[in-house]
């Protein structure tokens, strides 16, 4: 596309690094021709490199032609309108909040523009409404810190550096899910910039279809620029990490199955089981994250886990901010997540750990990385989680069609050498495929895939069920009739690819 005469003077202001594509140079110039001019950054700047390198996974750190960092919904609207007007075939763009997804292109782009929401990161508490207004570029650690002064919190991410935006529109599993439902179920209102540039609110009475679709429907409708979440009284938690020898696996599996089947008896309890191998230490351990969402030590739901002999523990009374700092993953690595959901069945968990142990040996024999790690993470998905959904206005996750307790398995691999990309990607994907096949063979499979953990090779929206797929598709066409967020914004999981 040839640059217009009006844009020509601006081309001379662009760093040479952006001239690889005349199209994207024109797109960056179009942004610079607006009042966003000072918010557009290029590869030669410190701010650009800080943005690019702040993505969690090194393999997800792409280099767009330029980055725009809006500070308000109005500036997001102007950015979207400008890029859409410039043409869908020319100005492709990505949208980034926290940048925690592990696959390249989910929230960034090359030969395009990234709308980086990280400057929109404030949290405002409205005591009279029992609500917190949170902007999409915030990290959960900043949200918890801001709200702690008021003795309240919100159901959010369990790792402090995780971003708000993607987490919430992907569903959001939290320490509080058994008490109040998924994080998305606790959103009272979305402020959204549509492809047209219009800024709208979506809630139970205004744009109710969009409100429901955004609760799990991800980046298919527009850019959310503010989330209003219901708050929860917060007078502290009791929790921490308990580390065990790998030889306790069978005891852990028994405790896990019983915990999932009994969580409805005490929804204040949260458990995450992590089987972890680290090449630096050479140790293959088990670590349980036990969190009780009120300040009571050694509550009954944890009795089986507590009864297993451990090597160390950090159990304590703490704030949610403190506990979510403990679950922070190491940065500076290349990563892959692959995830599946299954019936709460001890046989499935044994198979998941067997595959974990087998892959460790395969990686030992072939990895070139100096430092690498393999984690198999098991989490409860009991039907109690989605029993809260209907009373909270519904969502599109589709879990309410299941009348059984489930568990989620996440294979989380990290490494430091690009030469190992193919190795660990293959190991992660094949482990999940083998687990899926095994679960299906014993009737313990389930089609749901948690979007926030899904690999690019997976199709989480399809796992929401046909009724929700059709609903998401209809709402996307209604609010984005020209399909801007299906084609001009190529990142993330697209409903058009399912339909």
Distance between the termini: 31 Å
CATH topology type of the largest domain: Vanillyl-alcohol Oxidase, Chain A, domain 3
Q: Tell me the number of helical segments per DSSP (H or I, 4 or more residues long).
A: 17
By DSSP, the count of extended strands is 20
Quick check: average pLDDT? Answer: 94
**Judging from the principal axes of the Cα atoms, what is the shape?**
globular
By oligomeric state, this entry counts as single chain
CATH architecture title of the largest domain = 3-Layer(aba) Sandwich
Rg to the nearest angstrom?
23 Å
Taking pLDDT < 50 over at least 5 consecutive residues as the criterion, the unreliable ranges are: 1-20
Q: Which CATH class of the largest domain applies here?
A: Alpha Beta
Biggest sheet details: 9 strands, antiparallel
Strand content: 15-25%
Number of domains in the coordinates? Answer: 3
Pfam families: FAD_binding_4
Family: Belongs to the oxygen-dependent FAD-linked oxidoreductase family.
Protein name: FAD-binding domain-containing protein
Keywords: FAD, Flavoprotein, Oxidoreductase, Signal
Description:
By secondary structure, the chain is an alpha+beta fold. The chain has three domains: 28-116, Uridine Diphospho-n-acetylenolpyruvylglucosamine Reductase, domain 2 (2-Layer Sandwich), CATH 3.30.43.10; 123-233 and 463-488, Uridine Diphospho-n-acetylenolpyruvylglucosamine Reductase, domain 3 (2-Layer Sandwich); 237-460, Vanillyl-alcohol Oxidase, Chain A, domain 3 (3-Layer(aba) Sandwich), CATH 3.40.462. Helices cover 31% and strands 22% of the residues. It has 17 helices and 20 strands. It has helices spanning 8-11, 22-32, 46-53, 73-86, 140-148, 164-169, 177-180, 208-214, 249-262, 303-306, 320-326, 346-366, 384-387, 421-441, 466-479, 484-488, 495-498, and strands at 40-41, 66-68, 93-96, 113-116, 123-126, 131-134, 152-153, 187-193, 199-202, 223-230, 232-233, 237-245, 269-278, 283-292, 312-313, 316-318, 334-343, 372-381, 406-415, 445-446. Strands 12, 13, 14, 15, 16, 17, 18, 19 and 20 form a nine-stranded antiparallel beta sheet that branches. Strands 5-6-10-8-9 form a five-stranded antiparallel beta sheet. A four-stranded mixed beta sheet has the order 1-2-4-3. A hairpin with a 4-residue loop joins strand 13 (269-278) and strand 14. The longest helix has 21 residues, at 346-366. The two termini are 31 Å apart. The model is unreliable at 1-20 (pLDDT under 50).
């Amino acid at each position: 596309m040839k640059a217009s005469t009006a844009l020509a003077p601006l081309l001379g202001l662009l760093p040479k690094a952006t001239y690889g594509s005349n199209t994207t140079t024109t797109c960056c110039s179009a942004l610079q021709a607006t009042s966003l001019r000072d918010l557009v950054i290029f590869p030669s700047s410190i701010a650009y490199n800080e943005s690019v390198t702040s993505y969690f996974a090194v393999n997800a750190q792409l280099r767009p032609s330029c980055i725009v960092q809006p500070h308000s919904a109005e500036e997001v609207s102007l950015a979207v309108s400008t890029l859409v007007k410039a043409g869908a075939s020319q100005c492709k763009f990505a949208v980034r909040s926290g940048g925690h997804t592990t696959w390249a292109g989910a929230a960034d782009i090359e030969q395009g523009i990234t709308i980086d929401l990280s400057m929109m990161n404030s949290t405002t508490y409205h005591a009279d409404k029992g609500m917190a207004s949170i902007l999409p570029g915030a990290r959960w650690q900043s949200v918890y810190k801001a709200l702690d002064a008021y003795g309240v919190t919100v159901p959010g991410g369990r790792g402090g550096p995780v971003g708000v935006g993607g987490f919430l529109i992907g569903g959001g599993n939290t320490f509080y899910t058994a008490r109040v439902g998924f994080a998305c179920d606790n959103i009272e209102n979305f402020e959204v910039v549509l492809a047209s540039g219009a800024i709208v609110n979506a809630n139970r009475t205004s744009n109710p279809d969009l409100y429901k679709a955004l609760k799990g429907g991800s980046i298919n409708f527009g850019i959310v620029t503010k989330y209003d979440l219901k708050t929860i009284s917060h007078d502290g938690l009791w929790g921490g990490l308990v580390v065990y020898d790998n030889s306790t696996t069978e005891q852990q599996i028994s405790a896990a199955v019983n915990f999932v089947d009994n969580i409805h008896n005490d929804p204040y309890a949260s458990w995450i089981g992590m089987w972890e191998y680290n090449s630096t230490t050479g140790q293959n351990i088990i670590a349980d994250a036990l969190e009780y969402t009120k300040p009571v030590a050694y509550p009954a739901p944890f009795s089986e886990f507590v009864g297993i002999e451990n090597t160390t523990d950090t159990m304590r009374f703490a704030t949610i901010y403190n506990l979510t700092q403990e679950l922070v993953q190491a940065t500076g690595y290349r990563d892959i997540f692959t995830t599946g959901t299954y019936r709460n069945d001890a046989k499935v968990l044994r198979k998941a750990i067997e595959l974990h142990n087998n892959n460790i040996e395969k990686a030992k024999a072939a990895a070139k990385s100096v430092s690498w790690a393999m984690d198999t993470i098991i989490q409860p998905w009991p039907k109690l989680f989605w029993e809260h959904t209907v009373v909270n206005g519904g969502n599109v996750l589709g879990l309410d069609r299941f009348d059984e307790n489930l568990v989620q398995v996440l294979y989380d691999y990290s490494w430091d050498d690009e030469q190992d990309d193919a190795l660990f990607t293959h190991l992660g994907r094949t482990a999940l495929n083998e687990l899926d096949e095994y679960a299906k063979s014993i009737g313990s499979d389930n089609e749901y895939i948690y979007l926030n953990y899904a690999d690019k090779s997976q199709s989480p929206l399809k796992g929401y069920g046909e009724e929700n797929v059709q609903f998401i598709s209809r709402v996307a066409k209604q609010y984005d009739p020209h399909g801007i967020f299906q084609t001009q914004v190529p990142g993330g999981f697209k409903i058009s690819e399912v339909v």
